[in-house]
Amino acid sequence: MMPADYTFSFGPWNIHEGADPFGPAIRPTLEFADKVKQFKGLGFDAIMLHDDDAVPDIDSKSAAQVEQEAGALKAMLEGEGLVTELAAPRLWEDPRGADGGFTANDPAVRQWAIDRSKRCADVCRALGTDILVLWLAREGTYIREAKDAVAAHGRLVEAVNAILEHDPDIRIAIEPKPNEPMDHAYLPTIGHALALASQTANPSRVGALIETAHSLLAGLDPSDDMAFALSFGKLWSVHLNDQNGLKYDQDKSFGAANLRVAFNQVKVLEEANFADTGAMVAFDVKAMRTQPAELATKHLSNSKAMFMHLLEKVRTWDRDVELQCREAGDYEALELAVMEHLMGVQ
Fold it and tell me: What residues are annotated to the active site?
């Protein structure tokens, strides 16, 4: 049987103006519709969205307006040959979410965050996806004494339960990250995320999205994190990128910093038949600030090309050598075999 084909996704935020905390935008703004038109040409099948990508000013819209605008977007995407992989409530950019949304000390803010997330579930339904991602960006603290952490974790469970109750078909994928923008983030790793999932009203509908850089920032190996989630049937999407050390979240092109770490991510996905589950491979990557506008999509095409090169390496890897080295306990030989395979040494 032929191996399954992978489907690929990225978000409109991955085509951006190049602003960073130390400098302004250096590339012109592209309208959302113009970004969408580039997806197929870059070899992608699907789009990731925030709720306010799909429905601008979503907090000011009625439920009927949200459904109408999201439905119109779905039709536009279909016209470009695209589907929606997932949507996420963008709580962290609203001033009300400065102290977190679900874990804010202000109960009015907590209710706003839950209501906004329910609307995101409505957006998901209108767009034809059942995956809502929770990146808990500001769910944490700058100083630990600022919140009751025990109560905060309970509030996260309550928020997830409220979304599950609102839409009986939605699946929630928690995207863990250990820090940034908060010093101390709640649910910093995949283990934390799946432990919390087990406490929700319907654990079968709560899984995970793992991002390469987030695992590396936690000092962990992303392929091991993926394997952990896969072992529970809980890996519902991946954000592949790369990271040069324990710095800020760099979102470098996939495979750009550590080829072997990238190889093992593709290997674990392939060996677990990830594509057969219907889940997609997404790239959450940023163009280098130095790239001019006409070259500011190469990080996306490069990431997909690197995935395909590494997929070929995985599919041509001699598993008999791997098994023999395991049985002999000769991991030095195994390491050399991997490195020579990646280098094309015969």
Answer: 50, 53
This model's pTM is above 0.90: yes
Residue at 64 is within a domain: yes
Element (H, E) at 235: strand 235-240
Nearest to 214 by CA among 190, 186, 235, 232: 190
Are the C-beta atoms of 208 and 190 separated by less than 8 Å? yes
132 in Cβ contact with 124 (< 8 Å): yes
Tell me the DSSP string of 240-281.
E-B-SSSSS---BPTTSS-HHHHHHHHHHHHHTTGGGGT-EE
| Structural domain boundaries enclosing 334 | 317-346
Residues in the chain where the model's pLDDT stays below 50: 1
Q: Give the single-character DSSP code of 223.
A: H
pLDDT in tens, 152-172: 999 999 999 999 999 999 999
Q: Report pLDDT digits (tens) over 281-294.
A: 999 999 999 999 99
Collapse the DSSP code of 104 into the 3-class scheme (helix H, G, I; strand E, B; otherwise coil) and give the result: coil
Q: Tell me, yes or no, whether 2 lies in a domain.
A: no
Distances (CA, A) of 94 to 49, 116, 117, 168, 175: 17, 11, 13, 27, 19
How many domains does the chain divide into? Answer: 2
